[in-house]
């Protein structure tokens, strides 16, 4: 049993090892009630990993966690939350596809969570009490970075936490929001809450914290009462290293011509950047991560939208265009080598020559291997790239050698301006020396070099000048007289600027999602179906006969069920290519029970559903546990399942008897009962996705699995459940298809795989996950099936039927691409 002064959170001997780095090495931390405990350290010191361990999003390799008097070898986000710990991440752990109110339902523990019906009103009232002007029904994806941070803070406060952990909480906040947050912290502390405050900013520590712990390279290197240490002593503890790396000599740049000039450059996350870089000069961009320096560097490369003026050797550069920047001689080297820079499967030769193809080709068409080797060979030799040959795949090289290959690519292009992001990230000490030498040699040719780095030692030794960013602006310019690691780090952590105001989004249509209950896509599809049916009936009146309509609805039933199963999977960010094969297996399985009494057939239905669920479970295991890509996993199972169906029924058979067919074809007011059941399933699916906790988990997982996990969603289990439901619904689609055909045929149902994807996308779901409507899928399945039926009644040739259906398939594939382009279009972008 704890006393009032016992720590509410204790971390003892915490160890966390990642490949090649020991992020935490025996860290101890004890946080007392009624106290703000600051945790400081440079980028990479282990602060965020420590936060993850406390919150349950990171599992330690060793150590003990004591929360509220109970020992835990490890926590999960949900368990930490249920035990009174609330965490506000530096990057908000919110899923973009959920509304603010739905996010509250996921984030809040059971004891304070409102009901689904009361969630919107409760959230609106909670935000109003906190003085936050944020709509409860807004999608998280529509929020600004500032609003998202405030929502996560509001959720944390709503839990009435015994321990509150704040990871860089003021990075996206302005002065008013920061003061508001500090007032809330003071009230919590007065009530006995323990607060862990992660930051780089010493002025904030002075204002809000009583004690501190300093991390460096994954270890605790100091701490104690804040008032017992001067700012200089805190900086010394944070830095704690000497300049022990040999750097090339720095030249005298007096009188050098200006090559790169930016004036009043501004964009999302940075403002009023004015800088000049001379020929032969290396200028560093420094600052605590997330203060605008990275966006500013990428704006100079034309990779993000910006406003202002940029010139190279006096020539203006069109902003927001990487191609325009490249034409003016600007070369950018990304710090994310594997995703944005190297072609891992291509050879060293192919990577180096990638930006010089006209020089190594004949008539700019045919690559000449001799020219390629002649160009790449000397660059590789000069950089001492360690590889067996020029044909070695770059993906097999070490990080340092990959970076050398990128520098070789840049060097053969003789860049006028070289922008380098994190040049030695993940690089060993020996390779660092080579990289520093090459950067200085490139500068000696007259290139203007800008280096962004989180390593103050590197910036001190390599750069002629360093610009320290703080909250989107240049806080300090350090040159030879005061260019030291201490000064760089001190300028960053002692900065007091307020954050650059987040750009206001364009006006959002009020109550857009309330229109037609948020089911405008479903209504649109129903309207199109009615119009198409009317046009067809004018040309062929029998199209609306009872028999035709009944057959149309039966066909729709099977397509709708399979599409609903596909929707559940797609919403998690996956895809199921096995649904057509599951339909075939289901049709075959149920056909063995088609000649008996109704009870016997019911057993067959259960067998078919169980088989579909088993296939879905296998898909889920392959995707969520084995981590196979969904396309690969479900394609493998699709082949196996259709093979099993063909073994069971090499030839069509298992004809349903007349009584069973009559029962399956029962209608109510001309509408098949099977279709009515499918509609009820769709309505149930709608309620599941919109009102149930499982539905929120599905949408959160597909929107952002990392954020979903941090919110407390069991991502792997959610994906497993999605594939299981998808398989069961596909099997149900097979049963509906058997009700239509009355025969077991292993070759049937394969077309439903592509058709289901078409329906899901036309129904407005994103193929990248997170969104979708069961009601829209029902309506779209009816629309697609109506197209197929009407084409036959209109006597459209078989060739044109394929063409027209193909057009809809292509349209379905293009819909997400068009949406993405609209979001990225200049008109949709935010102006600074």
UniProtKB/TrEMBL annotation:
<dbReference type="InterPro" id="IPR027417">
    <property type="entry name" value="P-loop_NTPase"/>
</dbReference>
<feature type="transmembrane region" description="Helical">
    <location>
        <begin position="577"/>
        <end position="595"/>
    </location>
</feature>
<feature type="transmembrane region" description="Helical">
    <location>
        <begin position="601"/>
        <end position="623"/>
    </location>
</feature>
<dbReference type="InterPro" id="IPR003593">
    <property type="entry name" value="AAA+_ATPase"/>
</dbReference>
<dbReference type="GO" id="GO:0016887">
    <property type="term" value="F:ATP hydrolysis activity"/>
</dbReference>
<keyword id="KW-0677">Repeat</keyword>
<keyword id="KW-0547">Nucleotide-binding</keyword>
<feature type="transmembrane region" description="Helical">
    <location>
        <begin position="800"/>
        <end position="818"/>
    </location>
</feature>
<feature type="transmembrane region" description="Helical">
    <location>
        <begin position="751"/>
        <end position="768"/>
    </location>
</feature>
<feature type="transmembrane region" description="Helical">
    <location>
        <begin position="552"/>
        <end position="570"/>
    </location>
</feature>
<keyword id="KW-0812">Transmembrane</keyword>
<feature type="transmembrane region" description="Helical">
    <location>
        <begin position="630"/>
        <end position="648"/>
    </location>
</feature>
<keyword id="KW-1003">Cell membrane</keyword>
<dbReference type="Pfam" id="PF00005">
    <property type="entry name" value="ABC_tran"/>
</dbReference>
<dbReference type="GO" id="GO:0022857">
    <property type="term" value="F:transmembrane transporter activity"/>
</dbReference>
<keyword id="KW-0472">Membrane</keyword>
<protein>
    <submittedName>
        <fullName>ATP-binding cassette domain-containing protein</fullName>
    </submittedName>
</protein>
<dbReference type="Pfam" id="PF02653">
    <property type="entry name" value="BPD_transp_2"/>
</dbReference>
<feature type="domain" description="ABC transporter">
    <location>
        <begin position="253"/>
        <end position="496"/>
    </location>
</feature>
<keyword id="KW-1133">Transmembrane helix</keyword>
<keyword id="KW-0813">Transport</keyword>
<dbReference type="GO" id="GO:0005886">
    <property type="term" value="C:plasma membrane"/>
</dbReference>
<dbReference type="InterPro" id="IPR001851">
    <property type="entry name" value="ABC_transp_permease"/>
</dbReference>
<feature type="transmembrane region" description="Helical">
    <location>
        <begin position="660"/>
        <end position="689"/>
    </location>
</feature>
<dbReference type="GO" id="GO:0005524">
    <property type="term" value="F:ATP binding"/>
</dbReference>
<feature type="domain" description="ABC transporter">
    <location>
        <begin position="9"/>
        <end position="242"/>
    </location>
</feature>
<dbReference type="InterPro" id="IPR003439">
    <property type="entry name" value="ABC_transporter-like_ATP-bd"/>
</dbReference>
<feature type="transmembrane region" description="Helical">
    <location>
        <begin position="775"/>
        <end position="794"/>
    </location>
</feature>
<dbReference type="InterPro" id="IPR017871">
    <property type="entry name" value="ABC_transporter-like_CS"/>
</dbReference>
<feature type="transmembrane region" description="Helical">
    <location>
        <begin position="720"/>
        <end position="739"/>
    </location>
</feature>
<dbReference type="InterPro" id="IPR050107">
    <property type="entry name" value="ABC_carbohydrate_import_ATPase"/>
</dbReference>
<keyword id="KW-0067">ATP-binding</keyword>
<feature type="transmembrane region" description="Helical">
    <location>
        <begin position="522"/>
        <end position="540"/>
    </location>
</feature>
